[in-house]
Amino acid sequence: MRLARFLGYRLLLAIPVVLGIVVLNFFLIHLAPGDAASVLAGESGAASPEYMEQLRHKFGLDQPLATQFGVYLLNMLHLDLGYSFRNDSPVGSLIVDRLWPTGLLMLTAFAAALVIGTLLGLVAATGRNAWRDAIISLVSLVAYATPGFWLGLMMIVVFAIRLGWLPTSGYDTVGADNEGWDEVWDVGRHLVMPAVALALFYLAVYARVMRASVLEQVGMDYVTTARAKGQTERG
Predict the structure, then answer these.
(1) Which residues does residue 90 pair with via DSSP β-bridges, in sequence order?
(2) Res 126: pLDDT
(3) What is the rounded distance in angstroms from the CA atom of residue 140 to the CA atom of residue 120?
(4) Suppose 117 and one of 20, 47, 207, 226 were both cysteines; which one would form an S-S bond, judging by CB atoms 3.0 to 4.6 Å apart?
(5) How many angstroms separate the CA atoms of 163 and 160, rounded?
(6) How far from each other are the two terminal CA atoms of the chain, in whole angstroms?
(7) Are the C-beta atoms of residues 104 and 190 closer than 8 Å to each other?
(8) Mean pLDDT across the chain
(9) Which of 1-5, 96-100, 208-212 has the lowest mean pLDDT?
(10) pTM of the model
(11) Could you tell me whether strands 89-90 and 83-84 are parallel, antiparallel, or unpaired per DSSP bridges?
(12) Distances from the Cα of 19 to the Cαs of 23, 69, 80, 142, in angstroms?
């Protein structure tokens, strides 16, 4: 019962937060200069007043702001995220189509950062003030301070354009129609650079946290007692 009350309380707290985000998102868009009709008309190259009025009527931009807000809230309640004029497809379908590639990228980056970062932090802590500790700490500091978007661009320039080892973008090779392990290999090659660029920052964080945690435990009484009884580091 205590867990149920806690979860219910958290869900109740989430309602005003989500509502605030929805309201803020709506009014921030309308505070920006211009409107969606101007952007769409500019992209199509036909910015005549008649065409812009047609676009405003089509997307309901000619209605009062309160009416637009009410329609927006109603669509959110029905999980209707609207229609993408650029992609000529519902926004919900676009998001669903990209869930698997996004999830694969996130899980790969998280797993790589967690495993490698933990190992590097452990190696650094067990060799405190040694050369390996200095190198790992320096690499972690550089990785922590390197912007991910800059690293991604540099990796594209070096490994995709200069060396030609990896593809520049995409989920898999368009038109290749690979199957089985060939498809796995193709997707893996496309996954390397974005996963590395995304994981490097968190890898540095996990390495530093793991190093600090191990060094904190090394000075505890139970470790001193184990050493006094003859227990080795590897034992």
Answers:
(1) 83
(2) 83
(3) 9
(4) 207
(5) 6
(6) 44
(7) no
(8) 82
(9) 1-5
(10) 0.69
(11) antiparallel
(12) 6, 12, 16, 39
Instruction: Locate 103 and state its tokens.
Output: 């999830």
65 closest CA partner among 33, 22, 29, 41: 29
Residue 164, judged by CB atoms within 10 A of its CB (0-12, 13-18, 19+), counts as exposed
Q: Which of 69, 63, 78 is nearest to 29 (CA)?
A: 69
- Give pLDDT tens digits for 129-152: 888 888 988 988 888 888 888 888
Q: 3-state SS of the chain: helix, strand, coil percent to 5?
A: 75, 0, 25
In the numeric block, the tokens 């354009």 are attached to 161
- C-alpha 154 chain-centroid distance: 19
Residue 164's SS3 state is coil
**If you search the block for the tokens 């790969």, which residue do you land on?**
108
Q: What is the CB neighbour count within 10 angstroms for residue 225? A: 10
Rounded CA-CA distance 80/64 in Å is: 20
Range with the poorest average pLDDT among 62-76, 78-92, 184-198: 78-92
Handedness of CA 206, 209, 215, 218 (dihedral sign): negative
